[in-house]
Specification:
Length: 266
């Protein structure tokens, strides 16, 4: 892996290429249920989402990859309603004045059949979650690193949860460094769930007249797309899909390690 030995990576392309060998990512991912962890807390607009992934294609993909999004026979089809941003996640007419997370987590909604999920397209690979201070060489540093995974399992049928990763990287013998944490989710393609990484000591040998540092890269990616709600009005025999822009951090499907520590150099 990139952190073994004394291998330094200078460019972002080198980092992505190296991590792709060990933690490959799919171009598209899908989550069955409302993603209660891992969502970007920033407002995601419909315009932003459409630049990455069209709502029409997202619905087609959900019908292929998720259950409960197919057309209901004998019901009038109202098509797809596109919300203007991730903050516009209520449907007073069909679902009452409840936000998407709450209504997706309800056991039942009177006179409605509801299915929730997320589909997205990869927009950022292996985001940086922690970085040490940059040091000018010649120097030799030893960092103590650790990553703890707290899984957030849920029994709520309409939700999907991944967990929270807490990471630290501090110089040896200088006390514990500040911790950084982030949430993530898991797609339908995940075969190995993230597990905690034991405390390790990592030597960083910085050559003369160069600048070096250590980066903690998530073995996953940010996916921009839509939280989809397939709603059947059982009273009025009508159906529609609601597309709410969203961005979710999803773990690499086959890697049980949440992070790769990468040695960087200018």
């Amino acid at each position: 892996m990139a952190e073994d030995g004394n291998t330094y990576l200078k460019s972002e392309k080198e980092v992505i290429d190296q991590l792709s060998k060990n933690s490959p990512l799919y171009e598209h991912e899908a989550i069955q249920g409302y993603p209660v962890t891992g969502q970007d807390t920033q407002k995601i607009t419909l315009e932003q989402a459409k630049k990455v992934y069209s709502p029409a294609q997202a619905v087609k993909d959900a019908q292929k990859w998720l259950t409960g999004f197919g057309s209901t026979s004998g019901y009038e089809d109202y098509g797809t309603e596109e919300r203007t941003s991730s903050k516009e996640d209520k449907d007073p007419g069909w679902l009452g004045n409840l936000d998407a997370k709450t209504v997706c987590g309800k056991e039942s909604v009177p006179n409605r059949t509801l299915t929730c999920g997320f589909v997205g397209k990869l927009d950022t690979k292996y985001p940086t979650m922690r970085t040490t201070s940059k040091t000018i060489g010649k120097a030799k540093l030893t960092y103590v690193t650790q990553a703890k995974v707290a899984k957030e399992d849920t029994t709520t049928s309409g939700w999907k949860a991944g967990g929270k990763v807490t990471i630290s990287a501090s110089p040896e013998n200088k006390g514990g460094g500040a911790e950084t944490s982030f949430e993530y989710n898991q797609s339908t393609s995940v075969t190995n769930k993230w597990e905690s990484m034991a405390e390790e000591r990592r030597d960083v040998d910085i050559p003369d007249k160069t600048t070096g540092w250590l980066e903690g890269r998530a073995n996953g990616g940010w996916y921009t797309g839509y939280i989809l709600q397939k709603i059947d009005n059982t009273d009025g025999k009508a159906q529609k899909i609601v597309a709410i822009p969203a961005r979710v951090l999803i773990q690499a499907p086959t890697d049980s390690a949440p992070l790769t520590w990468v040695k960087r150099q200018n």
